Amino acid sequence: MFRKTTFQSGLRLVTEKLEGTKAVTVLVLVGAGSRYENQELRGISHFLEHMFFKGAERFTDTKEVSEAIDSVGGEFNAFTGKEYAGYYVKVASENLEVACDVLADMLINSKFKQEEIEKERGVILEEYNMYQDTPMYQIGWNFENLVFGDQPLGWDQIGTKELIRSVNHDDFVKYKAKLYTPDNTVIAVVGNVDHKQVVELIGKYFEMEAGEKAYEFKAIENMDGGKLYLKEKKTEQAHIAVGFPGYKEDHKDHWALKLLSVILGGNMSSRMFLGVREAKGLSYYIHTSTDNYMDGGVIVTNAGVDLLRIDEAIEGVINEYRRVKEENVPAAELKKAKSYLKGKMVLSLEDSEEFAHLLAKYELLHGTVRDPEEIMKLIDKVTVEDVRRVAEDLFQEDKMKLAVIGPYDDRERFLKLLKY
Length: 420
Hints:
Blueprint: E1 3-6, E2 12-17, E3 23-30, H1 44-51, H2 62-70, E4 75-80, E5 85-92, H3 96-109, H4 114-132, H5 135-148, H6 161-166, H7 169-179, E6 185-191, H8 195-205, E7 228-232, E8 238-245, H9 254-265, H10 271-278, E9 283-293, E10 296-305, H11 310-326, H12 331-348, H13 352-366, H14 372-381, H15 384-394, E11 401-406, H16 411-415
Parallel strand pairs: 2-6, 7-11
Antiparallel strand pairs: 1-2, 3-5, 3-6, 4-5, 8-10, 8-11, 9-10
Helix pairs in contact: 9-12, 9-15, 10-11, 11-15, 12-14
């Protein structure tokens, strides 16, 4: 059972004791994702994530940060999402204090030296180029831009080349001061740990300056970036994303939509996989997924398809959306999807890192932690009628959107396919 402590500064700590593991994860989540940016600052959240590893007070450069974790056989990494950024260290339980020491020094005392910024520009520009050259990654961002349009939620986290080439020390200091505040930070510690001991360690190392989050991200304004994104690119395989706007994070049908995405394309026995890949040989990879944010979301099917049969592949995906909208999902199929979703959750929560992410995310975004058992009960409550209602609500022809990357330049060809 999780436990929570809120420090006088406003910093929140949640812990979960897992007796069956000798590992522990310390994860810090901060409400400072790319949604908090404006056009001039596009990419600063992600660049800042990189800079935290470049040296602070106790660990003065990247080598010292790395060696501190490597010397105890630990793992560490970071990520930037749209609504938060995360930093974690995973170590053997006896090295918990090392993890707290390194993370606290990085996040509280980083120097953002200008010479380190100059070196990191090249690294991030190469990361930018990697995404541009990897359609499997890029297609997802293209689709979200179709759904959310030209606003922070519709932008990718990597940002613009202009920002990457121009951001400096003062920009990082100002941005960090506005968002990396104790009230906007949650620490999750999961493993074979004692809550009281963890409270003492966090209190010792995470002495954050008093301060409050300077601003909230802007709510979605105009949720539409068009029906079709077409990028002409010479490829050996076409990449498509077909889908619709979805639901926000706390929507009453959140779990019905998750189950619907499993039924459509969540695994190797799903409808998209069997109908489009296996039966017709139209794609290599194909999967349906959802992304849920605080005030919006998407459901989308991504696939890598035969260049010469792309029309047939798109029609095949759309047909599966139509079928689930017009016909009830058999009770046995829904039951299988529930078992799959709950089973995946159980497996993921064997990993202290995944468990920490679950706890910290709910605490940061919703102000309360949700127990896995509670989530499973919500999954079990979903009915065949709920799934049908969600499909009818979301899978409307006029809301259908398509992103394509491949050697094509005929927009009308693809626009004509967007119908049942």
